[in-house]
Write a structure and sequence with these properties.
- The protein has 198 residues and is of the alpha+beta class.
- It contains seven helices and eight strands.
- The strands form three sheets. It has a four-stranded antiparallel β-sheet, sandwiched between helices.
- It is globular, with a radius of gyration of 22 Å.
- The termini are far apart.
Amino acid sequence: MIAAALAVAAGVSGCAEETTVISERGLLIGLPDAERGGKPLRGGGGSANPLETMGDGELIRTTPTGERFLVSQSPRHVIILTRRLLASNDESDRVLFYNQLISDDTKRRAISEGNDPTRILEYFTENRAEILDLLAAMPMGELSPDVAFEHVEDGSGKDRSRLRIRSSLARKLEFTELWVQREGGGKGQAGYKLLWVK
């Protein structure tokens, strides 16, 4: 009886629902001649790689006084910023990387182990090629097909996540994991920070 009433109510409305597609997501978005149902696929911005559609002005912002700060609201942003800042030969980019993208917990741990926290920057610089290889294997960040994105419960009470290469590609890489942590901060710095690579 109730099922019949629901079926009648659903059929009585008689109105057709109209759907307008503003943006589509998927692996084929942005590829030449890609179609779905005979219609060309179009993305929200044109590029097939969402990491490449974000400009420096969106993630690296400059105040009227010339101070730069990072905006990192997702693990993908951490990857983009790490690529840009590590690949740069500009010393100010490396300082920005260390001061604003490296997790405060990573710096505190270095101090608690009796190490100079600036050694973290040296480590990333010395291993730059291998770290950039890892990031290249994650072309769409946590949405990459060969990446496992996992929230990590390690007893710290922190919002930590790990992006791990889970394909045979892992055997070819020096590093296979990127760890990120959600942290607060001032002036746009709230968001995800780089915890470590393994």
